[in-house]
Design brief:
The chain is of the alpha/beta class. The chain has ten helices and eight strands.
Amino acid sequence: MSLYFDRTYQRSFGTYPLMGDELTSAVAHAAKVGYRAFDTAQMYNNEAEVGAAIAALGLPRDEICITTKVHPDNFSDALFLPSVEESLKKLRVDRVDALLLHWPAYDGDNTGSLRLLQKAKELGFTDHIGVSNYTSRMMREAAVLVDAPIIANQVEFHPLLDQTILLKAATETGIPLTSYCSVARGEVFKYPVFAEIGASYGKSAAQIVLRWILQKGVPINTMSTKPDNIRANFDVMDFTLSSIDMDRIDAMRATGYRCVDKAKVPTAPEWD
């Protein structure tokens, strides 16, 4: 998996829903504090701006990890590879480090999109391939259907949602999880336990949540436009939560809060 999951790339900077000067500034601040992994998607409509912002950093290409995701509208034979080529053009690169399927196929049959994803890797459009928003059943199917290693299933992952089933599937299939909505779009801050635990480590509630995710073996994807928060989200590698505190946070999974459900995304699968 080369550099994709090393110490640096365990922390990726998300770019949704950033645009324009706000995006450019956020990416610059992220790079300044140490981020080298950046996440975008066709659906975000900001690949060109992300490409420009990353190019403006002036960093060597081999120090940057770029992930983008193919929208299900482009899962057909006619559209998939041309859409990836367009993404590369917008991002100003000849390949991305990771290319993901953003959602399962609309009809529930992922065979075709997985085949095209592997084709994109064979053509050199990406170093690694992955999926996003896959259920445990879909993970098991993908592990059988795809010859190349699937390096990520990017899913909603935070302490207010029990993703034990997906973690088990990750172990069984060898497809690691990576997180989005890592602080549940701010919902975690409604619960005092995170700040209480943070006080004993000299860390914020957000840093406690992010550290919990990392100790679950799941790389984190975070976004902020505030320089102090961008730095704080990155500075989560210098402490370790105790088993007692991990258990306290584990108990919060019973909350059952999901940011992305069928009410918000009608094409979302039936989650585990």
